[in-house]
Design brief:
The protein has 2 domains: 135 residues, no CATH class; 56 residues. 46% of the residues lie in helices and 11% in strands. The protein has 5 helices and 6 strands, in the order ββαββαββααα. The chain has a 4-stranded antiparallel sheet. The protein has a two-stranded antiparallel sheet with strand order 1-2. α1 packs parallel to α4 and α4 packs antiparallel against α5. The relative contact order is 0.10. The protein binds zinc ion (ZN).
Length: 222
């Protein structure tokens, strides 16, 4: 097949510029959620796989191996690819994630699938309405650009929360170390009093009372 003039290469696969921009953010979001370790396993971006019936010929559509969980589909949909589905062995596929970016100007041959999901279809068969959409719904209605913003906001919020947690740990550790320091000074004071008593050779009741007070009194050395 002849590649369109706007083709860019994404990790060795021909893609439209939208896909090349969107996929790394999608990947980062999946990694952040712990549903993906390592890189996306791309099967096809712009391509002519016979099972795809031409939907991948111009761009805006992606096939990713292995990702077939609800969360993978949900994140893709939230990120502006409502027409994303887990394609299964039961449907006759090698299991993979198939999706189409909403608002990508290069997705013309696959755009009917966006209409299909909005009508509750699963994107297969005539008009993409050969089966019922298996979700998860509701759809986001976002474009792929809005989807990138949505994901980046989540990633930013996560970083803020992370920084807050680190700050909290830092404060607690500081308080702990201050407490230890105080205890160390109290120990030294008590040791000093005991040493004096040992040197003196005998202790009066007043000496012992003073020692007891030093042990009991938290505030003496602070
Ligand atoms: Zn595109």
């Amino acid at each position: 097949m002849t590649l369109p003039t706007y083709t860019v290469w994404f990790r060795g696969y021909p893609a439209c510029p939208c896909l090349a921009e969107w996929l790394p953010v999608y990947e980062a979001e999946l990694q952040r959620l712990g549903v993906l370790s390592g890189s996306l396993r791309i099967y096809q971006l712009i391509g002519g796989a016979s099972a795809s019936a031409g939907t991948h010929s111009n761009g805006g559509a992606f096939d990713i191996s292995d990702l077939v969980g609800d969360l993978d589909v949900w994140i893709a949909r939230q990120m502006g690819a409502d027409a994303t589905w887990a394609r299964t062995a039961a449907q006759g596929f090698t299991p993979h994630l198939h999706g189409v970016l909403t608002g990508c100007p290069h997705n013309a041959p696959a755009r009917y699938q966006i209409d299909a999901v909005r009508s509750g279809g699963n994107g297969l068969g005539s008009g993409g309405l050969g089966g019922v959409d298996d979700g998860p719904r509701p759809l986001s209605g976002r474009t792929w650009r809005q989807g990138i913003e949505w994901a980046k906001q989540r990633q930013e919020d996560d970083m803020t929360q992370y920084a807050d947690q680190l700050d909290g740990i830092d404060k607690k550790l500081d308080a702990l170390l201050k407490g230890q320091d105080k205890a160390r000074r109290q120990n030294a004071a008590i040791r000093g009093k005991v040493t004096k008593l040992v040197q003196k050779g005998s202790a009066t009741r007043a000496d012992l009372a003073e020692l007891l007070a030093a042990i009991d009194n938290d505030t003496e050395e602070s």
